[in-house]
Amino acid sequence: MTTPCNSVTIGLLQHAAGPQDSYEVVMARVETLAREAAARGAQIIATQELFSGSYFCQVEDSARMDLAESIPGPTTERLGKLARELNVEITASLFERRAAGIYHNTSVYLDATGAIIGKYRKMHIPDDPRFYEKYYFTPGDLGFQAVQGRHAKSGMLVCWDQWYPEAARLTAMLGAQIIFYPTAIGWYHGETPEDARQQRDAWITMHRAHAIANGCFVAAINRIGTEDDLKFWGTSMVIDPSGEIVAEASTDEPCVLTYTCNLARIEEIRRGWPFFRDRRIDAFGGLLQRFGADA
User: Fold this and answer.
1) Distance CA 179, CA 188 (A)
2) Residue 159 among the catalytic residues
3) Which domain holds residue 165?
4) Considering the domain boundaries, does residue 2 fall inside one?
5) Catalytic pick from 57, 119, 133, 159?
6) Dihedral angle over CA of 130, 131, 137, 138, nearest 10
7) CATH number of the domain residue 240 falls in
8) Per-residue pLDDT of the chain (295 residues; tens, 9 = 90+)
9) What H or E segment, with its residue span, contains residue 2?
10) Is residue 184 part of a domain?
């Protein structure tokens, strides 16, 4: 039985997972970090996007689809065993094989018994140089998710979803107290220092905006290291409902980032900033259009 909690400690696992690292090497690394997070009091542990290996979407290569696995499958079984051992909940981002030729970028949520109690398939799929995700991933069809765990109600969104206020809003409207964003974002070698600064600043600003607009906690978990043409910028972080960055990792070091979220802050902030109260839901029909007033 789930009982209301006033606080929950989350643990974000930031690490490298390059092409040179085997699945076993990465999983051992993640398990070590997870044990450290649990030892520091984490009750919910979150991975970065596609955490069990390298970010393979930099090129279009059908052989890389062999990396996908079923859910439930080997990695969720391994994570379930870890959740039971540590008595924690885990949310993790995986490359899901749904059927022949149908793959998803999927987040799962496991409870402390190791059972999968939530699954979210990434809704927004990018197609940019070095981020050829449309080649690999079918857009999600499970809708937005808010999973009631033992300690909190958590939303699962993934990377490119970060740039869409509608996704965060709908997830918060389902009751999410914390929105987790597993992420793989970085710079490519040809970008200028100013380009790099602006991109990272914009990424941070979007997360802060989601926390403010929805009066909830936001947790982003990014990878580090250089993989092929991308240098990932880390900066995993936790943002409170006021938009303050309350915990932040470095740009280039592995990290177990833990933070205790005072869930009472949600009520406090929403009383002062009652954005849900004042939404003009009768005037939002235009959001169903691609752009402007034209169908």
Assistant:
1) 27
2) yes
3) 7-288
4) no
5) 159
6) -130
7) 3.60.110.10
8) 444 579 999 999 999 998 999 999 999 999 999 999 999 999 999 999 999 999 999 999 999 999 999 999 999 999 999 999 999 999 999 999 999 999 999 999 999 999 999 999 999 999 999 999 999 999 999 999 999 999 999 999 999 999 999 999 999 999 999 999 999 999 998 889 999 999 999 999 999 999 999 999 999 999 999 999 999 999 999 999 999 999 999 999 999 999 999 999 999 999 999 999 999 999 999 999 999 876 5
9) none
10) yes
